[in-house]
Amino acid sequence: MTVLSKYHPITRKPITHHIPVGFNKVYDDLMNYNGSFGLMLSIRSAMAKYGKLTDKQWAAIAKCTSPTNIEIKEVAVAPPKITVPLDCFDWDGLQ
């Protein structure tokens, strides 16, 4: 378990962050997160406030920060066949 001493962002009181073995990169990704995903923001806030997370919170953050193998398939779509009845046109107006 890694222990880092940080300061609370508002109160500036020292807080000790407890990081389980193997979660150092997850911790760095969490603390450097700049997006708007609510789960990441709330867990980062909890880490800043309490200095520790539950095992399930660590697992959730590890899952959110790990790259996933997403298979992207390109599917060819045939252009639609449009049949317009000949009586729809104003043949007299064409020149």
How do you describe this structure in short?
The protein has 95 residues and is an alpha+beta fold.
Keywords:
2 strands, 95 residues, 3 helices
Question: Strand-residue fraction?
Answer: 5-15%
Summarize the biggest pleated sheet: 2 strands, antiparallel
Strand order of the largest sheet: 1-2
Query: What ranges have pLDDT less than 50 throughout 5 or more consecutive residues?
Result: none
> What is the molecular shape?
elongated
Our count of helices gives 3
Mean pLDDT: 80
State the end-to-end distance: 84 Å
Tally of extended strands? 2
- What is the C-alpha radius of gyration, as a whole number of Å? 28 Å
- Relative helix content: 25-40%
How does this structure look, described?
The protein is an alpha+beta fold and 95 residues long. The chain has a domain at 2-65. It is built from 3 helices and 2 strands. It has helices at residues 24-31, 38-50, 55-65, and strands at residues 2-7, 14-19. A two-stranded antiparallel ribbon has the order 1-2.
